[in-house]
């Protein structure tokens, strides 16, 4: 099943958790407020492999980090547990904003890379294809590993028997049909 992950409307027809997340994002106008940063909800919620403690991961394309940091602090700085961290990883600047919204921890992740080219989105698309291909038992195995504390990409890599860095190994499937 093809899902347009660029628009959160698919959540409105999803699982009870996806519907709850959709209502929260709409009520708080989170995606609308991030509109200028091409936001995409990625990770476990869109894929329906979330477990207790999963957060809402929203990736953003950020070119002016100072401006983005000021903007999100104005819009979201009053939320419980608000933090903002900027750093460089492999020479690429990134920004991470975390806060609590209702019962959901939320994380914004920004890089000066178009959101559809960021690894968070690319991993989700690959994982979606794998879940479609291998079905319910595979999905249940991923969830079981996640419940035991294994992160998403390492869980997929472990089940598939992928060697090396699971984040890199999964990206090898990016053009796979």
Description:
- It is globular, with a radius of gyration of 16 Å.
- The model has no long low-confidence stretch (mean pLDDT 94).
- A hairpin with a 2-residue loop joins β4 (92-101) and β5 (104-111).
- The protein has 7 helices and 5 strands.
- A 5-stranded mixed β-sheet has the order 1-2-5-4-3, with helices on both faces.
- It has 177 residues and is α+β, with helices and mostly antiparallel strands.
- The longest helix has 29 residues, at 119-147.
Using brief descriptors, characterize the structure shown.
single chain; 5-stranded mixed β-sheet
Low-confidence stretches: none
Q: State the helical fraction.
A: 40-55%
Which sequence of SSEs, written as H and E, runs from N to C?
HHEHEHEEEHHH
* First-to-last CA distance: 13 Å
Structure summary, number of beta strands: 5
Tally of helical runs: 7
Gyration radius, in Å:
16 Å
Q: Pairing-aware structural class of the strands and helices?
A: alpha+beta
| Shape designation | globular
What spatial order of strands do you see in the largest sheet?
1-2-5-4-3
Q: How can the largest sheet be summarized?
A: 5 strands, mixed
Q: Strand portion, in percent? A: 15-25%
What do the pLDDT scores average to? 94
């Amino acid at each position: 099943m093809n899902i347009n992950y660029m628009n959160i409307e698919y959540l409105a027809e999803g699982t009870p958790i996806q519907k709850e997340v959709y209502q929260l994002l709409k009520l708080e106008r989170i995606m609308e407020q991030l509109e200028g940063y091409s936001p995409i909800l990625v990770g476990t919620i869109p894929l329906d492999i979330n477990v207790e403690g999963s957060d809402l991961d929203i990736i953003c394309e950020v070119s002016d980090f100072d401006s983005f940091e000021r903007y999100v602090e104005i819009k979201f700085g009053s939320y419980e547990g608000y933090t903002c961290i900027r750093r460089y990883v492999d020479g690429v600047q990134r920004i991470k904003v975390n806060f609590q919204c209702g019962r959901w921890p939320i994380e914004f992740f920004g890089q000066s890379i178009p959101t559809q080219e960021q690894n968070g989105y690319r991993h989700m698309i690959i994982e979606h294809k794998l879940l479609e291909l291998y079905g319910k038992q595979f999905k249940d195995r991923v969830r079981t590993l996640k419940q035991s504390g294994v992160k998403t990409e390492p869980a997929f890599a472990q089940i598939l028997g992928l060697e090396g860095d699971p984040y890199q190994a999964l990206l090898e499937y990016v053009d796979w049909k």
